[in-house]
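Feature request disguised as a bug: please show the residue count (152) next to HTH marR-type domain-containing protein in the output. Example input:
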Amino acid sequence: MDVGSFRLIEGAGALSVRSWLGMVRVYQGMEHDLDADLRRWGLSSAQFDVLAIVGANEGLSQQDLARWRMNTKGNVTRLLDRMRHMGLISRRTDGKYKRLFLTKQGKRLLEEIEPHHLELIEECMSPLSHEEQTQLLGLLAKLEAERSNDMG
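Example output, currently without the count:
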């Protein structure tokens, strides 16, 4: 269904709702495509995100990872437990924090997948010109800043 033909919401908030639904649908579609691709390596997009985040921030705390991914600590713990059993992540206690590191296997897998994954993201974004992607980034930053102000 075209987001523009969504008729359940009309009136003053219709544009906002249609815009929001459009963002959700595009995100879900891209996430579905990326997930399908990552299954070749036995990963979900959440697991790949953790590999990429921890790979770029070795020693990151579980708490910071949960904040970064906007997940509960419980969800992150379950995700990390699965990844630890897969041999991709190790946890080391440092005072009151559990620090995260990629294992050798996790580093190898990230190095193998990352270039392909970035290429797929570029393909997903290719309908937009460089200028349009820059505009989109600015608009998303504006929404994120307002959201952050409302929360904090």
